[in-house]
Amino acid sequence: MRKRILTGITTTGTPHIGNYLGAIKPALELVAPDNDSYFFLADYHALIKQTDPKEITGSVKNVALAWLSSGLDPEQSYFYRQSDIPEVQELAWILNCSAAKGLLNRAHAYKAIVAENTLSGSDEDKGINMGLFSYPVLMAADILIFNATHVPVGPDQAQHMEMTRDIAGKFNHTYSNILTLPEALIQNEISVPGNDGRKMSKSYNNIIPFLSSEKALQKSIAKIVTNSLKPGESKDCETCTLFKLYSFFATADEINDMKQSYKDGISWGEVKKSLFDAINDEILPIREKYTELKDQPDLLNDLFSDGARKVRPQAQELISKLREAVGISKIV
Ligand code: TRP
Fold it and tell me: Which residue has the least CA distance to atom 9 on ligand 1?
C-alpha cells in the first residue's frame, strides 16, 4: 500500500537551525515518488499560546518560507494551512465526542502545567484554556481527516500519536471502521546546541538563525562561547559546542579531520571559520530561495489556496462518510 505521510508544524516563532535539522530536513527526506506527503501549517494550534494576531500571521509566513526554501515542492507534496480546511474542525468536534476526558487528563503538556500550578499554590487550572486541554483532539483530526498512515514527529509527540490511535479506535468501535489508525515515525531526538552550549531554543535566546544574511550567520557564530585555550594547545572536541554544530553539517571525513585538528591545537578562529563555511554551504540555496520568496505575499497566498483546493475534496469525502455513520444525514 502507498504510504501516506503527514505532518504538521505549529506556527509559532521563526524557525532556526535547530528546527531545520530536527524537523524540516528529516521530514522532507521522506518525500518520495511512491509516497503521498502532506505538510501543513497548524495555525489553529498556534492560537492556544499566542494572542497577538500579528505574531500569528507573521509566523505562518516565516514557517511557510522556511519549508519552501528548504526544498518543499508544492507540486510533489500537498502543502496547506490547517485553517483552510474547515472539515478539520468538524472532525475535531466529532472526535471530541469519542475522546474520553480521562485520556486527555493524562496528556503530558496539560499535566505539567497542572503540576506547576499546584506547586505554586495556584488554582490547578490557572492559565489553561480548552484549546490547550483538547490540543490532542485537534491533532488527531489533522491526521485522521486525510487517512494518514505515517506521521513523522519528534519524541515529545509520541503520546499524542497514541491518543490519536486511541480516539480513532474508539470511534471505529462505536460506529464503523472508517478511520485509519496511523503509525508514528518518531524522529531521533537530536540535540542541537545554541550559541551558549545549551539546547538551541528561542526561550534561551541562543539561536543560530537560518533564514538570515551571511553577515548575521557570521555574527551569530562569532558569539559562540569557547574556553580560552590558545592556538597550538590541544583541545577536546567531545565537549565543544562548535564541534557538535560542525558535525551536523560536515561529511564523515571532514569530521574526522576536524577531530585531528582539535588534537593538533587548531585555533578557535579557524574552527569558527570552518563551521561558518559548512553551515553556509548547506544554506546557500535555502537563502537564495528565501530571498526570492519573502517579498511575494501573493505567491504564498496563492500557494495556500492551491494547496487547500487540492486536498479539501478528500476531507469532504471523509466527513460525509462520518456524518452518515453518526446519523447526521438525510431523514427517511
Ligand atoms: N503537535 C505538533 C507539534 O507541536 C504539531 C502538529 C499539529 C502535528 N498537528 C499535527 C504534527 C498533526 C503531526 C501531525 O510538533
Answer: 139
Nearest-angstrom CA–CA distance, 70 and 32: 16
Q: Are 152 and 187 in contact (CB under 8 A)?
A: yes
> Residue 98 corresponds to which cell in the numbers above?
469519542
Structure pTM?
Answer: 0.94
**Per-residue model confidence as pLDDT tens digits over 304-316:** 999 999 999 999 9
pLDDT in tens, 67-116: 999 999 999 999 999 999 999 999 999 999 999 999 999 999 999 999 99
Q: Which residue's CA lies nearest to atom 8 of ligand 1?
A: 8
Q: How many CA atoms lie within 13 A of 198 on its CB side?
A: 8
Listed residue (164, 283, 152, 163) closest to 213, CA to CA: 283
Dist CA 258 CA 237 (whole Å): 9
Distance of CA 283 from the midpoint of ligand 1 (Å): 25
Residue 13 reports pLDDT greater than 90: no
Q: Which long-range contacts (CB under 8 A, 24 or more apart) does 199-203 make?
A: 199/18, 200/16, 200/17, 200/18, 201/18, 202/13, 202/16
Instruction: Please state the atom number of ligand 1 nearest to the C-alpha of residue 9.
Output: 5
Contact yes or no for 97/243 (Cβ under 8 A): no
Average pLDDT, the chain: 96
Write out the H or E segment, with its range, that includes residue 174. helix 158-174
Alpha carbon of 206 to those of 82, 166, 238: distances in Å? 30, 38, 20
63 lines ligand 1 (CB under 6 A): no
